[in-house]
Amino acid sequence: MRRVCKPGGFVCAREVEWPSLVLYPRIQYLQESRELMEKLAYNAGKTLRGGRGREFARRAGFSPESISASAASVTYANEADRNWWGENMAWRLESSSDLKKGVELGFVTEEAAAGMPNAWREWAKATDGFYCAIDGQVVCTK
Length: 142
Prior knowledge:
Elements: E1 10-16, E2 22-24, H1 30-43, H2 53-59, E3 67-76, H3 79-95, H4 98-104, H5 110-125, E4 130-141
Antiparallel strand pairs: 1-4, 2-4, 3-4
């Protein structure tokens, strides 16, 4: 993004700081799905560590003075947000090869993989369902 950014332009990025995730209630396979996504990201050479945004921007060639870092809290607690996020997570798991790959790599059992999408749907229906995570964000000026 830095390469194609015009002088005076901005590059903005935001990523979840995955260990900051708070999920309630505790539903079987919900936490396992979070752990699976993190393991698959690392296995692919990616990271779910938004707190490293400054580091990645600097390594991409931005000077430290041109990088502004901050954080935002993302929360899904009301019924509409829970329904949207729960179904989004279930769909992501079902429509990708993540579950199959997780089983193949030994990150999860077939039973756990099969239960993960429905765990997100169950979470979405929980009256007291709560999801909160911190996103690290950077704005870089070229």
